[in-house]
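Need a sequence for this fold. Nothing fancy.
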């Protein structure tokens, strides 16, 4: 199957209100170009340097999403072009994003990462930490970031019920916060192996790599 065929098949399975992020990490520019020519415009990378290199080489109407764990000291390299940062899991990172976005006179959209998986290796904030950040006066005064929703990764297990319950937990917190956060639009959950379950549980953005580009 070609990248164009894979994209077409996935898009037929995804409702129009769900954004497809093509996870292009480790993939060559040529593969991204193929997806671009097939109509894909949103790409996700997990390493800042790789994303910067690709941004320089590829068309400028691509929307780049940072989907990996982000270290504050790397924000400055992508602040002039990144559209959405998925996995913000520390208040200090938000402060740095705001600072770097201000230098470029931009507002960078961010998602807070909610830890829903039962795995020590997954990053993320607790519900209390998320509520606390959103209520923080320092955050409310940040003019160059906009927290537009939540992101989460389910446990890497075969148990569909567990995955479904973890996605439900994320969606429930989103619904609880949304009345007080009018700028909330995005629930980013679901990857190649579980995006259909995530969509059933209310995801508005899925991150799909291997199902588009093939296995690494």
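Here you go.
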């Amino acid at each position: 199957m070609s990248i164009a065929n894979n994209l077409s098949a996935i898009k037929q399975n995804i409702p129009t209100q769900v954004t497809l992020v093509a996870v292009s990490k480790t993939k060559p520019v040529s593969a991204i170009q193929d997806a671009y020519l097939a109509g894909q415009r949103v790409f996700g990378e997990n390493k800042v340097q790789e994303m910067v290199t690709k941004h320089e080489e590829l068309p400028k109407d691509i929307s780049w999403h940072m989907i990996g764990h982000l270290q504050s000291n790397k924000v400055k390299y992508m602040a002039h072009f990144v559209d959405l940062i998925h996995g913000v899991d520390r208040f200090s990172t938000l402060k740095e994003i705001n600072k770097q976005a201000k230098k470029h006179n931009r507002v960078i959209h961010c998602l807070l990462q909610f830890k829903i998986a039962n795995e020590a290796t997954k990053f993320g904030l607790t519900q209390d930490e998320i509520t606390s950040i959103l209520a923080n006066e320092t955050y409310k005064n940040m003019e160059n970031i906009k927290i537009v929703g939540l992101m989460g990764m389910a446990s890497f297990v075969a148990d569909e019920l567990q995955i479904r319950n973890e996605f439900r937990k994320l969606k429930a917190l989103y619904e609880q916060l949304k009345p007080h956060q009018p700028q909330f639009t995005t629930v980013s959950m679901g990857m190649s192996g579980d995006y259909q379950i995530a969509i059933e549980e209310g995801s508005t953005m899925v991150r799909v790599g291997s199902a588009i580009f093939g296995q690494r």
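For context: The chain has a mean pLDDT of 95.
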